[in-house]
């Protein structure tokens, strides 16, 4: 499944498109259909700042076909500072765990063929 144009545009601007439950105000990723807190299906779009910290990652030194020129890189799960929501993205030039300690501040800087592009702060 490909990302929606609105999500891609937000990421290219350094943000994350999320959804806010119209009933209880819970902030969720834009991919959900039901609110995890109240079960409502009514949402409004909200834009979150794409800054946060690394909570886990995998270093890709042997990438899948078509991504050879991008290695090594890290597939990162980050927790957004302003919501606690976790999103994943790619961070270039990460070869060893010493290059990316858990808790490293990162930000969304774009969107490309890999998905969300991250950068260390």
Present the secondary structure layout:
Layout: H1 5-12, E1 15-21, E2 27-29, E3 43-49, E4 51-60, E5 73-80, E6 86-92, E7 105-112, E8 115-120
Parallel strand pairs: 6-8
Antiparallel strand pairs: 1-2, 1-3, 4-5, 4-7, 5-6, 7-8
Describe the structure.
This protein is mainly beta and 121 residues long. The protein has a single domain (5-120), classed as OB fold (Dihydrolipoamide Acetyltransferase, E2P) (Beta Barrel), CATH 2.40.50. Helix content is 7%, strand content 46%. It has 1 helix and 8 strands. A hairpin with a 2-residue loop joins strand 7 (105-112) and strand 8 (115-120). The radius of gyration is 15 Å and the shape is elongated. 24% of the residues are buried.
In short:
The protein is mostly beta strands.
Q: What is the spatial order of strands in the main beta sheet? A: 4-5-6-8-7
Query: What is the count of DSSP helices, taking H or I runs of 4+ residues?
Result: 1
Strand content: over 45%
Structural class: mainly beta
SS elements, strand count: 8
CATH architecture: Beta Barrel
Which stretches of 5+ consecutive residues score pLDDT under 50?
none
CATH third-level topology: OB fold (Dihydrolipoamide Acetyltransferase, E2P)
Protein name: Nucleotide-binding protein
InterPro entries: ChsH2_C, ChsH2_Znr, NA-bd_OB-fold, Thioester_dehydratase-like
Domain ChsH2 C-terminal OB-fold: 48-109
Pfam families: OB_ChsH2_C, zf-ChsH2
